[in-house]
Amino acid sequence: MIVVDRPNALRLFFALRGSILPRIFWSLATCTVLATAVAFSHGMLFQWKVTLTPVPFSLIGLALAIFLGFRNTAAYDRYWEARRLWGDVVHRSRSLAREVQTLFQTPAAPDPADDARAVLVRRTIGFAHALRHQLRDSDAGPDIERLLGADEARAFRAASLGTEHLLRGVGRGLGEALRAGQVDARIAAEIDTHVSGLAAAAAGCERIASTPIPFAYTLLLHRTAYVYCFLLPFGLVDLIGYLTPFVVLVVAYTFFGLDAVGDEIKDPFGLKPNHLPLEAICRTIEINLLEALGETDLPPPLAPLAGVLR
Amino acid sequence: MIVVDRPNALRLFFALRGSILPRIFWSLATCTVLATAVAFSHGMLFQWKVTLTPVPFSLIGLALAIFLGFRNTAAYDRYWEARRLWGDVVHRSRSLAREVQTLFQTPAAPDPADDARAVLVRRTIGFAHALRHQLRDSDAGPDIERLLGADEARAFRAASLGTEHLLRGVGRGLGEALRAGQVDARIAAEIDTHVSGLAAAAAGCERIASTPIPFAYTLLLHRTAYVYCFLLPFGLVDLIGYLTPFVVLVVAYTFFGLDAVGDEIKDPFGLKPNHLPLEAICRTIEINLLEALGETDLPPPLAPLAGVLR
Amino acid sequence: MIVVDRPNALRLFFALRGSILPRIFWSLATCTVLATAVAFSHGMLFQWKVTLTPVPFSLIGLALAIFLGFRNTAAYDRYWEARRLWGDVVHRSRSLAREVQTLFQTPAAPDPADDARAVLVRRTIGFAHALRHQLRDSDAGPDIERLLGADEARAFRAASLGTEHLLRGVGRGLGEALRAGQVDARIAAEIDTHVSGLAAAAAGCERIASTPIPFAYTLLLHRTAYVYCFLLPFGLVDLIGYLTPFVVLVVAYTFFGLDAVGDEIKDPFGLKPNHLPLEAICRTIEINLLEALGETDLPPPLAPLAGVLR
Amino acid sequence: MIVVDRPNALRLFFALRGSILPRIFWSLATCTVLATAVAFSHGMLFQWKVTLTPVPFSLIGLALAIFLGFRNTAAYDRYWEARRLWGDVVHRSRSLAREVQTLFQTPAAPDPADDARAVLVRRTIGFAHALRHQLRDSDAGPDIERLLGADEARAFRAASLGTEHLLRGVGRGLGEALRAGQVDARIAAEIDTHVSGLAAAAAGCERIASTPIPFAYTLLLHRTAYVYCFLLPFGLVDLIGYLTPFVVLVVAYTFFGLDAVGDEIKDPFGLKPNHLPLEAICRTIEINLLEALGETDLPPPLAPLAGVLR
Amino acid sequence: MIVVDRPNALRLFFALRGSILPRIFWSLATCTVLATAVAFSHGMLFQWKVTLTPVPFSLIGLALAIFLGFRNTAAYDRYWEARRLWGDVVHRSRSLAREVQTLFQTPAAPDPADDARAVLVRRTIGFAHALRHQLRDSDAGPDIERLLGADEARAFRAASLGTEHLLRGVGRGLGEALRAGQVDARIAAEIDTHVSGLAAAAAGCERIASTPIPFAYTLLLHRTAYVYCFLLPFGLVDLIGYLTPFVVLVVAYTFFGLDAVGDEIKDPFGLKPNHLPLEAICRTIEINLLEALGETDLPPPLAPLAGVLR
């Protein structure tokens, strides 16, 4: 996620960081070079005059804009739903930690190291890290080991789905407390709804990560957008002459740019600049839950690196 | 579902897999042939000059694009809601299995074969398979027999609605545990909310499968799109001459293509390339739940076949 | 609801069943006759040449298309929300029946005629039928009598709101079971959430049935669409001559057609071809719930009549 | 809310009731008179020819239509959410009454005057009336006195927020029943979720009533629409001459009309014809809940007055 | 939030308060000055005639309008979701206070100063204030000290996340009451769902505050809008001559204005005129909850300052 205050209108115009320009540079360049060639040849293609006129472009352009708008909305909805699911992870973790610490039959021990409940909370922190690593295809082992020790990390690595393994661990701890009479059945059930809520958030993230927008859309829009922009010079050259490359550049920047932004944010769990700052969110959860345990040696919040929070 | 990484711009342009082209090939071809004929006859139809000019097309085209956009959004919403419902099946199954294993009065037995609770979890796995087969009109019998044995499979086949039969089976098992004092009433009620959640997801899938987008929309849009594309040559031929077939091809590709993609994804439970990978999801559930039971002989995740996951 | 597989492109083009054509036939015919008259009089109205040119139509047409699109989306949302509410009725009924049969302190009796719980489930079936009749303004008496006997039918008829009366009946039965110690308070509360869920679905259906889209929208769009289509010949006649009636027909078909489809589905509980198949849904509920009671003499699912399920 | 069956196409065209025309009459008239003046002066303004041509209008018109469409959707969403919240009030009230009557430890007394539970239900009816009066800035006192007697009405009037005061009253009654052992804690908690649901619906209505669509939108769209319509004659006069006033009238009717409808329904709790029929809804609740208490002397449903239900 | 009744059409046209004009004044002025220069030079740029014609602008303008519409919808959705979350804070607080006061085993003490439960309610009021200060980056200390005394304020300041600290305080109080037998476990769990609801609302607000709309959108739209408006004079000057600056002003006002409104409301927690009135909402909560405690010395509702409620 790009962390930047909106600069004034002029500086915004020339901002580079966070721009989608690098991703579409080559397409834009090809398109503009072609348009320049067309402008200088006055629309002749091998001795044959290509007279497209602007009419076909206004017919196609409208449909293209509406369909790009549709895909863009779909991509942004995925991005925002993903963020919302991580918001669920945040507040479910906090509420689970709060209820575990306050609603058991015995008050929480002053020293977390003495208290079996602290393990429940630490497994919840581990869950957030494990979900992040799962979505980013990285190794959650070191984070789990740091939080829960080498034994739990080994069992974690052996499980087919680490997040689910940790939630089962939380459930097991809860069940033991229930059978030991440390917690009322009703309170245990209430706490377990938060565990189920974490499972739901994890399944939601998996759903977004594993189910793309149907590929046929990407193909259809990509092709129409490219045909449109590469033919546009032939439609404009008789009307605006040497200004053709410039107008084609602006049009292509808008269409390719929106295509590329949508393409980037539709898979929002990665490490690109416009993706969600999962690591910063996990750090926040870690700080909140360790503090709920009464620990005082808390890690600092994650700071953006070169204006980007990952 | 098509499993493919987005290739670069150029290769994407010529990709065939996942394209909607095969479905609309004949309509596109007819349209282009007609446009070619119109171009060569200079818009004459049996000695009669048809002068449509582009104006009517910009009047109709706008409405058409907006209404195609509407139908497309409706189709995609069905697709995504269906996926979300299967996401519910995933996390409800997992949470049910977790709670059954952890929150009973006695800890889960180390050997699943000894434990009555394992039957509950296996019925839940069976439910996911049964729902998939119901939505795809295939026979769930073999999957049920594999998971629950021949007796339960026979009862399953006799039921009018297999999914509901299995959920009642889960409920019956839960009721027996409740009456035997193995589980607190509050915990049983909490577990049963997941059974109700599975019933809700199944009813949601039935709803999408049995209630199409009103047929009048399909008719209206299909007719307008075809009239539009088949008349378009007469509107363009005086303006762009021999380029008419090419422009008509691009316009028809966009309109027919979006019509066809929307048509495919609006019934998302089938076996076409852009449909949901229900079998892979069921396999995931099976792996997760068997692992929750402590089994170690887990089936592998389903791999895509020729780039398509079904 | 129209039950039809999508035919191929050509046959779809000439399909009549499910078309909105009959509803808009007279408006279309008037419009086309007028356009023909304008074409033959070359746009003269009583010796006065009406030169509208296409420009005003592209100005108005855009706004019209966007606003028709808005109303269409609103109408479809009502249709789909109504279907979703009936989906709630389906799964709430099933879950209520399941919990009543499985989670009481005593197992369900093998013979439903002996079991007081069967009355609860039959009242729930009656509720679905009563809601259907309420929304369609028909008499639910015979259905209630068939399911619950003459006494309950008499009390049902005397109630001001039959659906609510039946839900109170379910609640009363539940309360008696609770006071008789047949069911744990926690389980009774869980079952009652399904009764509340049915009440919510009923209130939602009432809301859709009793609150139309604000009438001012209907007026505004209807008027603009008619003015647009009836004036359109004057705008096109100088450009495309004798083809005017044909183009006007296509434009009017699109605009009037969408207006009419939206108008039909915005009140989705009726008996028109594009309305929801409430009777078929009620039959499904009846089959599922009777089977849950262990009855074996089940009615068959409702079959479509001339391609339409009501 | 306007209660009217959709008349046929012709009569709909000339319908006056429910039309937005009276609200925009003066703007429309001014606009048309100006257009007539422009048509007769051939676009001269004090010897200076104003040649705007239609081009700027197609550039601005598109943006205007899209943004009006946005605001319209936002306004309609507020209207529909408000209706949905009142639907919540309806079914929460009914479910609360049902549970209070059926799930207590002792069956409901046959005579409501003898039963302390009747007070709970009557306070719930009072809540609906109080919410309506709060949203419409009218005095709820008489309704409360009629339902709950002079003493409760006095305390109600003294409270800073009447609806909340009544819900606290329901909660207090419930707490007394709980402490007297008349109701199980679990059932009391379930009933209280409905009280919380009513509080949520009330807060939702307050939110809609107190938070307008940001005023800057209203300003921006209003200004652009007026500039557009008042300048339009100068753009059309050279093209269509004396037909200018007529076309301007149609365009202005569409834009001003949609602006005015959106403006009316965005604050849906008032007494204008297109507002929600809160009084009729409150009456429905009163009938349902009194009947649930077993009373037989029920008020009749509210009838529309001159086609409008308030 | 701007508190203003909609004036009549004419006065609305010249309203200044609540207008977005001041924010976009310099961009608008530059644009208009440039357009005037172009009009007087007849589109010559250093002896070189720039003939853009309106065609490129209708091609780009459409896409621009659709994409601005998309961003605007996204911004408004953030604004409205933020308001909805604060509505949740309102009704959760009220329900928590109601349940704490009514559903404990002992009735509430007449004097709040004597009652430990009053502390729970006061911490809830403090939570609302703390959330507001957190979102506005201001110091919550004085408000907390006023409500909860110096000791709690010191602990609050030491916590890494004040809101979470206060909710943990509410949970601790609840846990003590539970262990002291003052409240049934089931009721405590019900009350704690409101605490979790407040945590969810806080996490939702944090999500909106910390996750902007992807920066690439802002860049893309800002750039296209500026290029469009600054080039527009060259496209119009040959058509409408000296009227160019005026038309450019209207177009730029619409595009820049919508860009600026969207930009303002997309971060809705600030102190700008169109932002949410968090202070007024917190005051409402304070009044409601103190009254629920039975206090009579209530602060007055916040009044708008110069027409703006903050």
Automatic annotation (TrEMBL), chains A, B, C, D, E:
<keyword id="KW-0406">Ion transport</keyword>
<feature type="transmembrane region" description="Helical">
    <location>
        <begin position="20"/>
        <end position="40"/>
    </location>
</feature>
<dbReference type="Pfam" id="PF25539">
    <property type="entry name" value="Bestrophin_2"/>
</dbReference>
<keyword id="KW-1133">Transmembrane helix</keyword>
<feature type="transmembrane region" description="Helical">
    <location>
        <begin position="52"/>
        <end position="70"/>
    </location>
</feature>
<dbReference type="GO" id="GO:0005254">
    <property type="term" value="F:chloride channel activity"/>
</dbReference>
<keyword id="KW-1003">Cell membrane</keyword>
<comment type="similarity">
    <text>Belongs to the anion channel-forming bestrophin (TC 1.A.46) family.</text>
</comment>
<dbReference type="InterPro" id="IPR044669">
    <property type="entry name" value="YneE/VCCN1/2-like"/>
</dbReference>
<keyword id="KW-0472">Membrane</keyword>
<keyword id="KW-0812">Transmembrane</keyword>
<protein>
    <recommendedName>
        <fullName>Bestrophin</fullName>
    </recommendedName>
</protein>
<feature type="transmembrane region" description="Helical">
    <location>
        <begin position="225"/>
        <end position="256"/>
    </location>
</feature>
<keyword id="KW-0813">Transport</keyword>
<dbReference type="GO" id="GO:0005886">
    <property type="term" value="C:plasma membrane"/>
</dbReference>
